[in-house]
Amino acid sequence: MATLNRSPFLKRLFKNKGAFFGLILIIVSLLLALLCYFIAPDTSPNANRMIPEIGSKKPGFTTLLLRTKRDKTVAKTGFFKQLLNGAEESYQYVPVTAYTVVKDSIVFQKYVDEGITERRSIPLSLAGDPPVVKTKYYLGTDKFGRDILSRLLIGVRVSLSVGLIAVLISLTIGILLGAIAGYFKGWVDDVIMWFINVIWSIPTLLLVFAITLALGKGFWQVFIAVGLTMWVNVARLVRGQVLAVRELEYIEATRALGYSHTRAIFRHILPNILGPVMVIAASNFASAIVIEAGLSFLGVGVQPPQPSWGLMIKENYNFIITHNPMLALAPGIAIMLLVLAFNLLGNGLRDALNVRGKI
């Protein structure tokens, strides 16, 4: 039985500059997805700190924010809880242009709009420590006054999660059906191929819409909907590979030795077709990210206030032709880079595994 020689494979993969660049981007994205709530300037759940007065500001916008204590007591957030969901805010934030401490009060000029301020004061005991912080929004703010950079970082987690779960679902269904069709042939192959062709004939986006509407809108529903539409390519590829491998001598030897069909498929056939499967998995990962972004843009994907790159484009695309195009361009560039990374990695895997002529 053929085996994969890892050392030459890794050498060929790392010599491919495009694949190496894509792998670095993917690793950085994974680290950002894991640590996003510790890296993002806004660590609130879903980076949903809304400050309407500073909505739709350009990249590099800097302001003073007065921190005032919330009415309710907020419990301290543990490490793992913050890692998963962020930390609940202990303060409310008010944009100010100037402030001064007078005895036991803070007198400040509240920022209302460009050139408009309002004089107010609060007891010093209701302010945080320090009471005022200087904040810079490196990518600007959206129309709700939320930090674009923070939502962009947390959106990495959504895109990678959709890609991972969609690929796992598509590989599970596609490998199972493709292997059964290719190994048993005959009427089993005819039935499975008929089903594959029916699914193949339905436009992907239309199928995703139907599944999403059946399952409902939401975070997990998007994963399942995308995954259930991407298994067809995998099944067709696996079927073709199994049809070729099942006729080789070592597979005939497993039949002569009386091994079960299950063992022949999972122990002797599938391990030898992993190369093409890995390549199509990388391609499906990139496709899943694009499909999720498209669904969120159309309003049937990830729902607010959870940050999704497609949803961010939807909320801010009208600014492309106005004064602040970066609000929509930033998530668009992020989608482009992540999809490019997986496509480059897929091309590198194809070359390193020498499966160019098999797909």
Automatic annotation (TrEMBL):
Subcellular localization(s) per the UniProt record: Cell membrane
Looking up Gene3D superfamilies in the UniProt record yields: MetI-like
Span-the-membrane segments of this chain are 20-40, 160-184, 191-213, 219-238, 273-300, 320-346
Annotated ranges, domain ABC transmembrane type-1: 156-346
Signal peptide: which range, if any? Answer: none
| InterPro entries found in the cross-reference section | BP-dependent_transpt_permease, MetI-like, MetI-like_sf, OppC_N
The reply on keyword Ligase is no
User: How does the record classify its membrane topology?
Assistant: Multi-pass membrane protein
What keywords would UniProt list here? Cell membrane, Membrane, Transmembrane, Transmembrane helix, Transport
Would you identify the family this protein belongs to, as annotated?
Belongs to the binding-protein-dependent transport system permease family.
PANTHER family associated with the record: D,D-DIPEPTIDE TRANSPORT SYSTEM PERMEASE PROTEIN DDPC-RELATED, OLIGOPEPTIDE TRANSPORT SYSTEM PERMEASE PROTEIN APPC
What is the protein name for this chain? Answer: ABC transporter permease
